[in-house]
Amino acid sequence: MLEDELVYVLSKDPEIKRLFIVENRNSFRLVKKLKSENLKPFMFPSDRLYPVVSEINRKPPSDSLRDSLRDSLRDSPRDSPGNFSRKFSNIPFCKKICDSILRKKKEQGLTVVVNLLRKDLHSDTDLLQAEVYLNAREMSKISNGILLFYGKCGFSSEKVQAELQQLGCPIYFLRDDGRNIVDDCISVALGGNEIYTKTMLSGNGKGAIYATPMVLSDLNETNYKSSESYKKIRKYLTSPMYSLLFKINNQDYKDVNFHRNASEFAKIFNMKIINVNGTMEIAINSYVEAKTYICKNIE
């Protein structure tokens, strides 16, 4: 559901050296959007991709002294580079090796792995949270940190939150300016939970649907109106109570069919379109914050 936000933040990061996409039936549209931003992602099935990334992360063969020095560097506290340098500053040969290790780590560049889950998981919260945890567990084996591009719908249960914290890999969340984890993808698109609440209140109690390109992307699919997902939403959207469609506009959205889809959707369910402004701030700020912590922890 946050595909466009993900494309935006990745296109704004010049420090990405390798961009990998887990190949599945959901990833092809994402790859097309990434290529439109002049990014060159590599796409592999997970059973092939994870070993590739593990090999990139694996330290090269070295003699026992070099291993010992690297182990000291790895096992020291967060400010380890400074402690390590001071510890061996009087041993020129050791200092030379230390500097070489840190330089190679920096030159290695940033590796980003994207694992896009299918959109229809949102129809079953329990299934969604189970899939988020399952995939986070697999990703944690090859990652220094994971940023979950989900609102609370992806990990709201205490059980899932506890399981995520036990993965042995830092987990980061999308947060608004108030440091609150966002409620869902609409909160991300609008700019935070407070703005989301204000937008709801502006509807004066009328039932409303909040539209981003990804929310309405199914309208482009063949035979969508005969699909189970369409039948489910039709059951409640045909109610007169639902009369508003909040259309979230953002110049960074990639779907050229968004305006047409919104008009068609509003016509089908007899809704009035209300245009509101969207933003990429939560996506970019959360990404930069997570990246900063991850890089700091591996220095």
What can be said about this structure in brief?
The protein has 299 residues and is α/β, with parallel strands linked by helices.
Are there runs of 5+ residues with pLDDT below 50, and where? 61-89, 97-106
Side-by-side strand order of the widest sheet: 2-1-3
Computed structural class: alpha/beta
If helices are DSSP runs of H or I spanning 4 or more residues, what is the number of helices? 13
* Amino-to-carboxy terminus distance: 33 Å
What's the main sheet like? Answer: 3 strands, parallel
Strand content: 5-15%
Q: Report the principal-axis shape.
A: globular
Question: Can you give a write-up of this model?
Answer:
Helix 4 (64-75) packs across helix 6 (92-108). The protein has helices spanning 3-11, 27-36, 46-57, 64-75, 80-87, 92-108, 125-140, 158-165, 185-190, 193-201, 228-237, 258-268, 281-298, and strands at residues 16-22, 42-44, 110-114, 146-148, 171-173, 207-211, 242-249, 272-277. The longest helix is centred in the last third of the chain and has 18 residues, at 281-298. Residues 61-89 and 97-106 have low confidence and may be disordered. The strands form three sheets. Strands 2-1-3 form a three-stranded parallel beta sheet. It has a three-stranded parallel beta sheet with strand order 6-7-8. It is an alpha/beta fold. The protein folds into two domains: 1-186 and 280-299, no CATH class; 192-277, no CATH class. It is globular, with a radius of gyration of 23 Å. Helices cover 49% and strands 13% of the residues.
